[in-house]
Amino acid sequence: MKKYPLIYGLALTAFTAYVMLDTFVLPSTYGISVSEPDLSVFEEQDTQVTEAVTEAEQETDHQPPSQSGTDTDSSSSSESGQSTRRHSPADHSSNSRPGERKHRENESSSDSQTDTQTDENAAMDIQAASADEKTYSDENITISLKEYRVNDTTVYAADVSLSSAKYLKTALAKNTYGKNVTEKVSVMAEENDALLAINGDYYGAKESGYVIRNGVIYRENGSKDTDVLCIYTDGHFEITDSSEKTAQQLLDEGVWQAFSFGPALVEDGEVTVAAREEVGKAMASNPRTAIGIIDDLHYVFAVSDGRTSESEGLSLTQLAQFMQSLGCTTAYNLDGGGSSEMVFRGEIINNPTTSGRTISERSVSDIVYIG
Length: 371
Prior knowledge:
alpha+beta; 5-stranded antiparallel beta sheet
C-alpha cells in the first residue's frame, strides 16, 4: 500500500517540473508567422511631407529680398523634409512640448507646472558622467548617446531624432513569435542592422497583453490593469489599456508598435509614478529600461545599470524623474533587471547583470531599435 503514495508523489513532482519547464524554459511557437514591416502605411505621410517641403521652397523662392541686403537663411526650415519635426539633441525645452497624447492635449501649460517639475527634479542627483558623446547622424536619423550618474547609478540615455517613425522598429527573437523564444539583444541588433537597440517588454514570458509590432497584431488578448504604450505611425505616443480599446481598434487608428509592460512613468510632462504607490521590485533599486518622447519624432532611449557596487540601480520613481528631467512628455517603463540592455552600433553600452556578480547578457524575446 505504501507504493501508491510514492507513485502519486513522483507523478506530482514530474507534473510540477513539466509545468515549470513549459512556463519558463521550453520554447514553443504560436503558429503565427512574423511579417516584414508594412511600410506602405508611411507612404501617405511621406507624400504629405514632400508636398509641404515643396510648398515651403516655392514660398521661399517668391520672397522679396531682405531690405538689409542679406540673404534669408531658409535651410533650417527645409532640412531633411522635416521643417517642424526635427530637433537638435540638445533641444529639451519644456516650453515646446506638443501633446503626443492627442486626447490629453493641454495647450495652457502654466509656469507653475514648470516650477513644480523643477522642484521635483531638484531632489534628484543627476550629473553628466563625462563630456564624451557617442553620435550617429544621417539624413533621417540622429543619435546622441550620453552617460549620466543618477543617485549613485550609471544611466545611459540616447537622444534620437527621426524623419519618420518607420525608423523606430521592433524585432522578435529568432524572428519567431512564441513563448520562451529568446535571443541576446546584441544578436538581434546585429541581425537587424540596428544602429541603436534596447530590450523590449519580454512579451514571451506572459500569456496576455497586446503585442503589436511593426504594424502587425500578434496578440489580441489584453492584460488587466496594465498600461499599454502605443507608438503611432506619425510618431506620437499614447498610453492606454485594454479596457479602452481592442488591439484591432488600435491598429485601425494607426498604431505602429504596442508594448504591454509598464507602468507609464511620465504623462503630459508629469511624473505619474508616486513613491508611496511603489511596492516590491518597483520601489527597490534595479537595472531599468525606459523609452520616452520629447516632441515630434524626438525620443529618448534610457537604460540604467544596477545590482553592482558601482551602480545601485533606480526605483521606478527615480527612473520617471530622470526621464522627465530630459524633457520627456511621455515615458514608459520596459522590462528591467537582468533584461536591461543597450546596444549602440554593435557595442554593448551598459553592464547587464542578473545577479550582480557577473556581467552578462540575458536572452530576451524582443528588442526596440532604430534602423
